[in-house]
Design a protein that fits this description.
The chain is mainly alpha-helical and 785 residues long. Among the domains are: 10-232, DNA-directed RNA polymerase, N-terminal domain (T7 RNA polymerase, domain 1); 294-380; 416-499, Helix Hairpins (Orthogonal Bundle), CATH 1.10.287.280; 535-618. Helices cover 53% and strands 10% of the residues. The chain has 28 helices and 17 strands. The strands form 7 sheets. Strands 3-6-7 form a 3-stranded mixed beta sheet, with helices on one face. Residues 68-72 have low confidence and may be disordered.
């Protein structure tokens, strides 16, 4: 029970996270304005969506009523020649973007009417130019675009493309400035008159008066209103200093102030939600009572690596790496070649630094947050559900659902002396995170006890930075480092007594495990370790081995388990051949693959087809279930349902309500490849989306139900990552038993597939195999391993 002082401190923290979030919102908004990029702000994005159709209609009216009928007059006549290749909505987007960027927060002369009008004309000319390039040689334009570094600015990209096409004798006839200004004036006027957001106004500057384009009072009022709305969603989501409030169907849980602010909901979905059962609520509230603390050893390593700017790629640790600008040549003013070389190197440095800042934000924020909470004896996480029943922490940092580095910073605040079985599972964590996740339990124990392992453990625990080469290439480097330090301190050096380390076990391809239970299919159960076996089964290797004999020998391609892993994992979630191709190609051509190969489109098509056929042979039951689900869900929607709804064995109510949002997609060529989706209305049920999402959502709701049933009464600290469960080493045996018994309860003592069929009103019965007894999972060593 929290004391009044602790409650007061937590409320102060929640107040601070609101203030920090709002301050960050306004800071980011001001930075965008200062960089003349106000169109990226939260208020501009909302205003653009409502303004584009209106401005586009005005532009269309000008074109159809005046230009195409030949009554435009000399002022607007150039538009017919120069802008008719640009669609109305794109013209509206480009014009509005310029007006937002240079006129919303005027601080210099960029909002002079002539300057604004010229900027609009330039933007339209660039768009017309790139459309011309795309028409003449689309492949070459695509190649040029891919060569441009993400940090390159708009003007450089336009200059470079123009130069490269000119070298191929594809030259752009530049618009005469007078025509460009006339065009810019016409489009700017269209935007101003149809929105009433900007106006031309004379300003006195000394003895001179100049014409500016400035925001109207109406626009400033809209901006203030939208910023006030944005502030409601701006608060940061930090861990809590005391236990979160319990969730009920009537009362918001989590943060103490959430009941008043309603910033977070029990189920993360729009619109009304279902009444949830007792077990899902109790499970969520039990999870929120788990206390965590920061691992000081990992935090120290992270801070030292950050200071050194050292990247640990596999651990997702990417520190900020800012390179200094090159020294200017002494003869830069007179030496043309030296000046050009300096500018090239300086541009490369600017590009590198720009990308480095973006990539390092996650790591930087994680270290800062860990430093902040390292002063606390313990902290807690508020959680909530997605609409399928999977749980997610509300805070962004210091949660188990983070990067390898982020997860390694977390310990359970409650510790206890290591038992003999705890030592067994600590060794399991050590060897598994090192990379022996496919080895038998005996092999993992043997490696953890070997002289090789003990030497590595002692070296990296004593000096992890000097010996970084011994752990940075592990499968999960920071988690291995945390396990090694725990093992060294408790077992070798014996400088600590209590264990606080979360030990994780993962499901073997959980989608197929659930489908094996739904269909009672023994062949699939054996393949994904639901059925007992002496060694961990490897579904990925089995599929690769089935495909390889059918590949022509002259190709010189032999698939490895990793080449088909993502395909096998995602087919139970309705992944299509197009995405399968991408996964296989990425793996075969990966630089880290022992035998990197080049693959032609024809070869890739055949490999993808054979892989999908292999899945049909190896796991026929689950794929028949998926075919049945897709068909019946489609028929239910066609039959008049606007959504489907079912209740899982744990009592969680899933509401799948997927609607078509009538949108207009607006793509421009040059301005950052803008793709702005404008929602115009909420439409009918989305049949295709329902069919594609139905089977995956049913599977996710079942694996969530396993955890809710199995761990609702688990009385030791634990946490979850979807199909992975974590607890202290001493209690892993009990957790394993609880999860297995939940699988039996769901798939032996219930029939979720028949319950689902009844819930949506199917026309045919589920295709059950009945070749597998789910109770045998209690004897499967590698079900979660």
């Amino acid at each position: 029970m929290a004391t009044p002082a602790q409650i007061e401190r937590q409320i102060q923290l929640e107040t601070a996270q609101v203030e920090e979030g709002i301050a960050q919102l306004h800071s980011n908004t001001q930075k965008a304005k200062d960089k003349k990029y106000a169109s990226s702000t939260v208020y501009a994005q909302k205003m653009l969506k409502s303004a584009i159709p209106v401005v586009a209609a005005t532009i269309h009216k000008i074109r159809s009523a005046r230009l195409l009928r030949g009554v435009a007059g000399p002022a607007l006549a150039p538009m017919a020649k120069h802008t008719m290749t640009i669609p109305d909505d794109v013209s509206a987007l480009l014009t509005l973007k310029v007006l937002f960027d240079v006129c919303t927060d005027p601080r210099d002369k960029s909002d002079l009417a002539n300057n604004v009008i010229d900027r609009v004309g330039i933007a339209l000319e660039q768009e017309a130019k790139w459309r011309y390039f795309a028409e003449v040689n689309p492949d070459y334009l695509k190649w040029i675009t891919n060569q441009h570094h993400k940090g390159k600015g708009l003007h450089y990209r336009d200059y470079d493309a123009t130069r490269r096409f000119a070298q191929k004798d594809v030259k752009w006839e530049a618009w005469p400035r007078m025509n460009r200004v006339k065009i810019g004036a016409a489009f700017a006027d269209a935007a101003m008159t149809s929105t009433n957001w900007w106006e031309k106004r004379l300003k006195q500057e000394g003895k001179r008066r100049s014409l500016h384009i400035l925001p109207t009072t109406e626009m400033l009022g809209i901006v203030r209103g939208l910023m006030d709305q944005a502030e409601l969603f701006a608060p940061l989501s930090l861990p809590m200093l005391i236990e979160p409030n319990d969730w009920t169907n009537e009362r918001a849980g989590g943060y103490l102030t959430n009941e008043v602010q309603r910033g977070n909901k029990l189920v993360r979905t729009f619109g009304p939600t279902c009444i949830q059962g007792e077990k899902p609520l109790n499970f969520l509230n039990r999870l929120q009572k788990v206390a965590y603390k920061i691992n000081p050893f990992i935090l120290d390593v992270g801070q030292r690596l950050e200071e050194d700017g050292y990247k640990v790629t596999k651990g997702k640790f990417i520190p900020e790496d800012i390179r200094p600008l090159p020294e200017k040549p002494h003869d830069i003013a007179t030496n043309k070649e030296a000046r050009a070389e300096y500018r090239r190197k300086a541009a490369e440095t600017h590009d590198y630094n720009s990308q480095s800042l973006k990539k390092s934000i996650r790591t930087k924020m994680t270290v800062n947050m860990a430093r902040r909470f390292s002063k606390e004896k313990e902290y807690f996480l508020p959680w909530s559900y997605d609409y399928r029943g999977r749980v997610y922490p509300i805070p962004t940092y210091l949660t188990p659902q983070d990067t390898c580095f982020g997860k390694s910073l977390i310990q359970f605040a409650q510790g206890e002396p290591l038992t003999d079985r705890g030592l067994y599972w600590l060794k399991f964590q050590l060897s598994t995170t090192y990379g022996l996740d496919k080895a038998t339990m005996e092999e993992r124990q043997e490696w953890a006890e070997s002289a090789e392992c003990l030497k590595i453990v002692e070296a990296i625990a004593v000096d992890p930075i000097v010996n970084i080469s011994q752990w940075e290439a592990c499968d999960e480097p920071f988690l291995f480092l945390a396990a090694a330090e725990e093992y060294y301190s408790l077992v070798i050096a014996k400088t600590r007594v209590n264990t606080h380390l979360p030990v994780a076990v993962d499901a073997t391809c959980s989608g197929l495990q659930v489908l094996a239970g739904l269909s009672h299919d023994k062949s699939t159960a054996e393949l994904v370790n639901v059925f007992p076996g002496s060694r961990p089964s490897d579904a990925y290797k089995a599929v690769a081995d089935l495909v390889n004999p059918h590949l022509p020998k002259e190709w010189g391609i032999q698939l490895q388990r990793g080449d088909v892993k993502r395909v096998v994992m995602t087919i139970p979630y309705n992944a299509k051949p197009f995405s399968n191709r991408g996964y296989i190609k990425a793996s075969l051509t990966d630089k880290g693959r022992p035998e990197q190969v080049e693959v032609t489109p024809e070869q890739l098509t055949m490999i993808t087809r054979l892989t999908r056929e292999a899945m049909r042979q190896i796991v026929p039951g689950p794929l028949r279930v998926m075919d049945w689900l897709n068909r019946e869900i489609g028929d239910a929607i066609k039959g008049g349902k606007d959504h489907i709804e079912w209740t899982t064995p744990s009592g969680f109510c899933v509401k799948q309500d997927l609607r078509k949002v009538n949108t207009e997609r607006i793509d421009t060529f040059l301005m950052g490849r803008i793709a702005l989706r404008i929602g115009t209305s909420l439409g009918a049920p989305d049949l295709k989306h329902h069919k594609n999402a139905g089977a995956p959502n049913l599977i996710h709701s079942m694996d969530a139900s396993i955890l809710q049933i199995g761990l609702v009464d688990f009385d030791q600290p634990f946490t979850v990552i979807h199909d992975s469960v974590l607890c202290g080493a001493n209690h892993m045996d009990a957790m394993q038993t609880a999860v297995r018994e939940a699988y039996v309860e769901i798939f032996l003592h219930n029939s979720p597939l028949h319950d689902f069929a009844d819930a949506i009103g199917v026309q045919t019965q589920p295709p059950m195999e009945y070749t597998f007894d789910p109770s045998t999972v209690t004897e499967s060593t590698y079900f979660f391993s």
